[in-house]
Amino acid sequence: MKKGVFIGLGVIGMIVVVGMMKNPLIYERYQVELEEFESFMSSYGKVYKDDDEKLMRFRVFKDNLSYIRVINLENHSWTLAANFFSDLTFEEFSNIQLDKSLNDETNENPDFNILSSNEKSLNLPNSIDWRAKNAVTPIKNQQSCGCGWAFATTASVEGAWKINGHPLISMSEQQLVDCSSSYGNKGCTSGTIVNALKYVQANGLANETAYPYTASTKLCSKSKAALVVAKISSYNSVQSSSSNSLMTAIVNQPIAVAVDANPTYWQFYSSGVIDGNCGTTINHNVLVVGYFTIAGQTPYYVCKNSWGPSWGMSGYVQISIVDGLGTCGIQTSPAYPVV
């Protein structure tokens, strides 16, 4: 028996292990999984309140590893891997990271100027990546606050501000979380890009240093919010259900979008192009920073997420380009600021 097999599993866990010892193959597999779990805990700084919770999280972790292995054996165009969320069930992940109310609150608005497919460029470039043009700040982490809407909004403003001749500045998500409730947003509970852009148009944004992120909803600090470093003059939407319109818009600047971050695809996403039927039940927001339409390859959008740099492709996800509402509903309601 390897040293440490029983550590932190409590009486119930010890009984389970003793039972497994009767079958060497099962016990050996259990040892490997336990070592993987201990490595996972160490890598991500996971601490549990007691042995019972640790055992429960270990079981969830094992189930998730099994799911990841099965999906990867199916040879999809994307792969999954264990990450910070590996000790959460799909339901827990959804409740913590996603916004279930977004599906009932589209980013469409009658005041928008809508970029339609009739305005598309006749010769769209095969690819564009605003990261290469220094118009995208480093990956951020919303943590256990369901405010992807705030991160997608600040990211879109950061890009537009840079493209219009200003320095690239990391802007404050916390300001939007705390201060935009009168525009219809609800902090860590829910919000939309449109409501956030309305707030930015009226009030501007402070930078991240002046109004730092806390991953919680607090009272608006008027003194911090007054330290404005960027403003926008208006905001527009892109025609829904049109890949040509969205790509045309991306040529000009990064675009904030709403998506269905279905946990069966997104929770453990590691690499590749998501091209499956991940749904159109909108529950999250990301920033499209580019697209690639290279001959012989699946065309895809490159999206900046807000779940930290250890998630996905160093914080990014690739979503296949198709018409209609798009893969994961990415063409449901794109929007962008005008500086």
UniProtKB/TrEMBL annotation:
Origin superkingdom: Eukaryota
Pfam families: Inhibitor_I29 (PF08246), Peptidase_C1 (PF00112)
Biological process (GO), any one: proteolysis
Ranges where the Peptidase C1A papain C-terminal domain occurs: 124-338
Gene3D superfamilies hit by this protein: Cysteine proteinases
Domain Cathepsin propeptide inhibitor: 37-93
Recorded family membership: Belongs to the peptidase C1 family.
Protein name: Peptidase C1A papain C-terminal domain-containing protein
Species per Swiss-Prot/TrEMBL record: Stentor coeruleus
